[in-house]
Amino acid sequence: MNILSVQGITKRYTSFTLHDITFSLPQGRIMGLIGKNGAGKTTTLKSMLNLVRPDSGEIKMFGRSFMKNEESCKQNIGVVLGEIDFYKHKKLAVITTVTKRFYRNWDEEVYQKYLKAFALDPQKRVKELSSGMRVKYMLALALSHNARLLILDEPTSGLDPVSRDDLLGLFRQLVKDGERSILFSTHITSDLEKCADDITYIKDGKLLKSAEKSVFIQSFQNLKEPGENGQLSLEEIMIRTERRNYDI
Description:
The protein is an alpha/beta fold. It has a domain of 123 residues: 3-Layer(aba) Sandwich (Rossmann fold). The strands form two sheets. A six-stranded mixed beta sheet has the order 6-7-8-3-9-10, sandwiched between helices. It is globular.
């Protein structure tokens, strides 16, 4: 079953167009969304969530139209978008008290578990947190209402290597039972090598490729130089694709 289906999403701006983005995410899998800065990754995520209104296309979550069932769908998703911030002078405990009122399935025990796992002090104010700790706090909120789909924009950005590895390990644990899926954008291709099942690549507002990771990597092996041995990594694929104005 596809927990998420994006079909033909298009969003036009004066100087940029996100054009005909189509991909699907099965239940129990992790998908990495890649592309250089300005390629359209964040616009794709915002269009999926109706934070910006797409000009055309359809989004389905849990087998239902997201636009027609937005409120109920949002009860079952956890979202972390990098540019969203909180009132800097508010304590985490106060923000959480407000946030949990919006979720029917809020699980306080799970929330407390992630506070402890992420070493978050609920009495600290937002302004006292590093960028990495803010990401962890937003993840704690996203994970505390039994969300079946996590949509994350650059979740590992700002984390040190150890914390990043811990978070990627958590992602694998979260999808282990096959009930939950994760879609996350990133520019850190090594993160995808470690935990992604599927890769979706957006270039200049267009979908270049969406496939299971091994199939995705194999699709770009024609980028190798004559006589070059071995398989190209995701990082090498991105670098060569962008430099050569490649279109698959």
